[in-house]
Amino acid sequence: MQTFSIAIHGGAGTLVKGMMTQDLETAYKNALKLALDQGYKVLDQGGSALDAVEASVKELENSHLFNAGKGSVFSANETHEMDASIMDGKNLKAGAISLISGIKNPVSLARDVMEKSEHVFLAGEGAMQFAKELGYKFEEASYFYDDLRHQQWLDIKDSNHFQLDHSAKKDSKFGTVGAVACDKDGNIAAATSTGGMTNKKWGRVGDSPMIGAGNYANNKTCAISCTGSGEYFIRGVVAYDVACLIEHKNMSLAEASSEVIHKRILELGGDGGLIAIDSQGNIAMPFNTEGMYRAKKSSNGMEEISIYS
Fold this sequence. Notes:
Blueprint: E1 5-13, H1 22-44, H2 49-61, E2 82-88, E3 93-100, H3 106-116, E4 121-123, H4 124-133, H5 147-156, E5 167-168, E6 171-174, E7 176-182, E8 188-194, E9 215-217, E10 223-228, H6 230-235, H7 238-249, H8 253-268, E11 272-277, E12 283-284, E13 291-298, E14 303-308
Helix pairs in contact: 1-2, 2-3, 7-8
């Protein structure tokens, strides 16, 4: 019987164990389990990989703990600019949105771009107009307000500095959430969502909404969702790079993922991690940072929820 599986992530980076209280670690693990179970339930009931990754990412977007949706960080002008993407490995259809605000679940808007428009990528005012035409509810700014996120912004506002999500001294976490899944039919899908960088300017966009950089899915190779230093992941076309190594060098999912995260992205000067799945339900979750919020579950009985290496 076809193995069905799902993996999720909530960001990678410098997650110093001593800085994490037991209560906070429990909260993160509970949030990861909730998102993991939402997606797995879809697969277990015969749902599609696409439905599963959307369900898991929506759950992560609904938590203030992760830099996506409700937990998005503040930009330089004290607003929230969110990005998301989704891709179906069965037919290579994809949808992405960038620089939107007020949308509770950006990943769902990305899916609507894929299924209800002639396009792949909508940004800014145009993406907001598209959402309005579809009848999306726009949340008040207070929905996205979080004391920790606001303090992170206050610490560096009016400066040229920006930071990747949680930061204390040099410690940082790259705040992105994502999911990859393989369903009972052997179809795979990937979804990624982010609130970007604290104090980011000029409409900066990272790798998360970019198909091939931060998100990719193809039944012939793999589905990937990335989290890391976005500029480097864009330059390395990381998600597609893993798929290419599988297709053209006949590497396994584990080999290709490891090659990209532990060698190729480091050579560029970037760091972070990714989650990957193939159409046999195999999962890889490599990262070259101190930790990555991650979880995986499979119909073969495997389940894991982890933060540190």
